[in-house]
Automatic annotation (TrEMBL):
CDD domains recorded: dRING_Rmd5p-like
Single GO MF descriptor: zinc ion binding
Highest taxon of the lineage: Eukaryota
SUPFAM superfamilies tied to this protein: RING/U-box
Transmembrane stretches, start-end: none
Any one GO CC term of the record: nucleus
Subcellular location(s) of the protein: Cytoplasm
Zinc finger (RING-Gid-type): 327-368
Classification via Pfam families: CTLH (PF10607), zf-RING_UBOX (PF13445)
Species, as recorded: Adiantum capillus-veneris
Keywords noted in UniProt: Cytoplasm, Metal-binding, Zinc, Zinc-finger
Domain RING-Gid-type: 327-368
Protein name: Uncharacterized protein
GO biological process, one term: proteasome-mediated ubiquitin-dependent protein catabolic process
């Protein structure tokens, strides 16, 4: 993509537009001056008004014809139109405006797609929009999608308003599940509540809160609790506290994100909206897909019939969720039809490579002396 030529053409069009604007304004200003001059003459010459008016208007007509505004403005506008048209052609050449040709027919259940969209609305707190979409696209089958996100959204909004009570209630009710995951969410909520009491100067209340709530977490978080206890000594002058980082305002936003992550995890949902991730990954892959589709079309190959892309598409790490196996013998990437197979010796080849080696008999592993039969191999999943 030659962005330099796009930039040059754009700047040239801008210059033409600027020149055209200046020329048009100058032309209008000259005509206005002639009109003002004619009005002044008409107001001064009272004797024989009709004759004077004719003479003044004839003079005005001659001046306007001499300025030739229509020709001047038309010429300027023509230059602008030519530059704009050229810029449009450069844009069309540099960017593919028809992204539909990169799309392929995919066997995808409409209901699953509608559920992803509905969940995205609910995750964003757009409950009215989500309800409308569910009623029109899913009906009764989508009624259960909303409830978990209503509670999550209300709690997150409470955290942003520095109200931790709903979040603490939720954490207590899900303590067993959080502990099984090794999550420290409940302790972090208590820590933030304790620090909030200190910020208000309520040292006795903060000390009592620590006694009531930090006990169950003393084994895993004793060092952190000791830091919190030291903060009690700095009540009223927390800005001088050696642990002042604990009182940073960004901790509230961090807690909102942390709670959302933990809640989504217990709900069996990813932290990021699947719809957002899909669109972001698709946008990153789109230029490569468009180029590939164009090349295949020029070679009269059917883009829709490809079972595997001829080139690898590089995506950022946040879009890589599964390991990809490439057969060390054939160098082919595994697919549903050609899955990776585990041999008894724990070496792995793709199914088609094993079938070529086996030929209905035992064969030697390419990487060790083990003798293997096809029946001993098992598919593995990453």
């Amino acid at each position: 993509m030659d962005l330099a030529s796009v930039k040059d053409t754009f700047e040239r069009a801008c210059r033409k537009q600027g020149v055209g604007e200046s020329s048009t304004l100058e032309c209008v200003e000259r005509i206005l001056q002639e009109v003002v001059r004619a009005v002044e003459k008409l107001s001064v010459n009272d004797a024989d008004k009709m004759e004077n008016a004719r003479a003044v208007l004839a003079e005005l007509h001659a001046s306007v014809c001499q300025i030739a505004p229509i020709q001047d403005i038309s010429a300027s506008q023509k230059d602008v139109n030519v530059a704009t048209l050229k810029y449009g052609k450069v844009l069309d050449k540099a960017f593919c405006t028809d992204i539909a040709k990169a799309c392929r027919d995919v066997d995808w259940a409409d209901e699953s797609l509608c559920q992803i969209i509905a969940v995205h609305f609910y995750r964003q707190g757009l409950f009215d929009l989500g309800d409308c979409f569910v009623n029109e696209a899913l009906g009764p089958t989508g009624a259960s999608l909303k409830a978990p996100f209503v509670e999550m959204f209300q709690i997150v909004e409470g955290i942003k308003m520095k109200n931790l009570d709903p979040a603490l209630t939720w954490a207590r009710s899900h303590r067993a599940a959080l502990m099984q995951k090794g999550s420290s969410l409940e302790f972090e909520l208590h820590r933030l509540q304790f620090l909030q009491l200190l910020l208000k100067g309520l040292r006795p209340e903060a000390l009592q809160y620590a006694r009531n709530n930090f006990g169950p977490f003393s084994v895993q978080h004793m060092a952190e609790i000791q830091r919190l206890m030291c903060c009690l000594l700095w009540t009223g002058r927390l800005e001088m506290c050696p642990y002042s980082d604990l009182f940073s305002v960004w901790r509230w936003e961090e807690m909102a994100q942390r709670f959302t992550r933990e809640c989504c995890s217990l709900l069996g949902q990813s932290y990021e909206s699947p719809l957002n991730v899909t669109l972001a990954a698709g946008s990153q892959a789109l230029p490569t897909l468009l180029k590939m589709a164009t090349v295949l079309t020029s070679k009269k190959q059917e883009w829709q019939l490809l079972k595997q892309l001829p080139v690898e598409i590089e995506l950022n790490k946040e879009f890589q969720f599964h390991s990809i196996f490439a057969c060390p013998v054939s160098k082919d990437q595994s697919t549903a039809e050609n899955p990776p197979m585990l041999m008894p010796c724990c070496h792995v080849l793709c199914k088609q490579s094993l079938q070529k080696l086996a030929k209905n008999r035992s064969f030697k592993c390419p990487y060790c002396p083990a003798e293997v039969t096809m029946s001993q191999c098992r598919p593995i999943y990453f």
